[in-house]
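ok so i was messing around last nite and threw this chain in just to see what happens. nothing serious, just curious
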Amino acid sequence: MGSNQQKTNLLVKVFDSLIHCLDEVVSLYDDDFNTGKSFDPELMFCMYHTVQNRVEYIVESLLKLNEIELQFLDNLLVLGLEYFAITPQLEIPDTKRRVDFLVEYTFQEKYSCICVEINGSDYHTGLDNEKRDHERDLELQQQGFEVVYFTGKDVYHRAEECVEFLEKKLMENLK
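result:
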């Protein structure tokens, strides 16, 4: 597992990103209020609790990340994907599968999401592990998910290229 300092630094980045999102929501409501549009406090309350639940989930998920996954998440946040929705350690509904990260992006009412797997040598070598990974990938693809893979070495040595590749794939997949 990653160091406490790494996790603390990541939490600060995640909270900064969430605060930015909340600021955007508040500014939208300020605009509505200033232009005389109706202000819906119930919707604002719902959005607040959605963000609160997401924060709790991310904090719990960060505790489960290994060293290379922490580094990958840090790279995503540092290198510019902080405004994408990044969900670590996500269990995919209707499956018994967990992905390292689900990265989602919405732009001009179009949506894109990609499952990201970080394949380190500790957990992804050997016939049993390869078979398990292959079964998971088929199940995810059948559910309509695209899966992108990076090796631990890629994340460690070429982090910027990994993030650029992921960002390019997300943009290509906007629907």
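not much to say yet. The first strand starts at residue 85 and ends at 91.
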